Input
Amino acid sequence: MRIMRAAFASRFDDADPLAALTVGEQPEPSLPDDDWVTVRVTASSLNHHDIWSLRGVGLRAEQLPMILGCDAVGVDPEGNEVVVYPVVPTPGDPRGMSILSEHFPGTLAERVAVPRWNLLPLPAGLSAPDAACLPTAWLTAWRMLTTKGRVDEAEAVLVQGAGGGVATAAVVLATAMGKRVYATSRDAAKRERVTGLGATAVQTGARLPERVDVVIETVGAATFDHSLKSAAPGARIVVSGATAGHEPTVNLRRVFAMQLEILGTSMGTPADLADLLAFCAEREVRPVVDSVVPFSRVEEAFARLHSGQAFGKIVLDHTS
Output
C-alpha cells in the first residue's frame, strides 16, 4: 500500500473545527472502477466546505478519516496538466452525486483519484495556482451568473457579502462581463478591496442607486430581505449558500408582486467548468488570491480561512 501526505478530518469538532484537522500519512486513494485515474496534485485551494466537514456537516463518523479538499490542478498518468472537476457520481447519495471529500477522498493530498472524464486540460496562459481556485467557488459563481441568473439579460448585479470565495468570484466575473456590479460588506477594508475589483461597494443593507436584475446571495438570513428590496421586477435572486442563517423571513407579497425568481444552485457541470476556464484564459481574468501557502504549512492556511480575514482564495502549493 502506497502512503502519501494529506490533510484530513480525523474527528468532528463543531466548536473548534481546526482541532479536528490532522496532517499526516494516509493510504493513496484506491481506484473504484476501471475508468478512474490517479492525479498527482500540484496546487489546490481551500473552501468553507472544508471547515464545515471538520464540524461534521455532510460526513458521518464511520467515514473518518476523510481527506479534505475539493479543488485541484495536477498531472494525469500521461503527464498532462489537468484541472480536476470535483463532482463525482455517487449512487448512494440522495443527490446522485457528491463533491470530493464527501464520499471519496479529497484533493488536499499528494494524489487524488477521480473518473477520467473529470479531468479538463489546463488552458495555456492559466497558472496552476490560479486554475486551482476555479472548480468549486468560481464554478458556483459562474453558474449563478450564467445558467441560473441569465446575466446576459441583465445590466446590474448585486453581490451580497463580498470577500467570500463565491462572492468575490461573482464580482470579478460580472465586472468582466461588462455589468454594473454592487457589492456589500460590513467590513470597510473589504469594501475598499472590492472597489478595486471594479464594483461599487456599499454597506450591508444600504439602499442601492438602482434596483438590480440579478442578486448573488451566499449570506442568507442576514441579507435576504435586502436582496428582495434591491431586486428589480422580474429579477433573479440566486442562492448558493447561507453563511449567516438558512431560514430568512421572506416577504411573499414582494416575490409575487415583483415577479421575482428565487433560484438555488450548487457547483456546475463539466461544460460549465470548461466555459469558465476558457473565459478566464481568453479574457485574462484571474481569480483573487488571498495567499499562496506551501502544502507543508496547510494548518496555517486553514487558520487563515477560519479567521474570516481572507479576501479571495487561499491556495496551497503542493510543489513546495
About this structure: The chain has a mean pLDDT of 96.
